[in-house]
Amino acid sequence: MVRFVVGALAGGLAVLFWGEEMRRFAATKTRRIRASAADTLKAVEETAENVLDRTKEQVTSTLEAGRDAIRPSGPRARAS
Q: pTM of this prediction?
């Protein structure tokens, strides 16, 4: 229990003396991390868009091929 109290007091004193400096340090470090995370999310977004576009094209062509395969052919079908 004594160690806990001593640790809490030491932490409080550290914040009292170096609190502002620690806040500035944390703010500058997290700014770079946030910028890096934003760049990564942008890259993921672009990749996902490309994949979805390709998938849409494949589904569309497959559906068209399916329609062509089941569409009746012959003299009556051509007259319609």
A: 0.48
- For the chain, how many structural domains are there in total? 1
Distances (CA, A) of 11 to 2, 4, 30, 80: 14, 10, 22, 86
Q: Any residues with CB less than 8 A from the CB of 22 and at least 6 apart, and which?
A: 15
11-70 pLDDT, tens digit each: 888 888 888 888 888 888 888 888 889 999 999 999 999 999 999 999 999 999 999 889
Residue 72 lies in a domain: no
Query: Is 80 inside a domain boundary?
Result: no
Range of the domain at 62: 2-67
> Residues 6 or more apart from 36 whose CB is under 8 A from it?
none
CB distance 40 to 47 below 8 Å: no
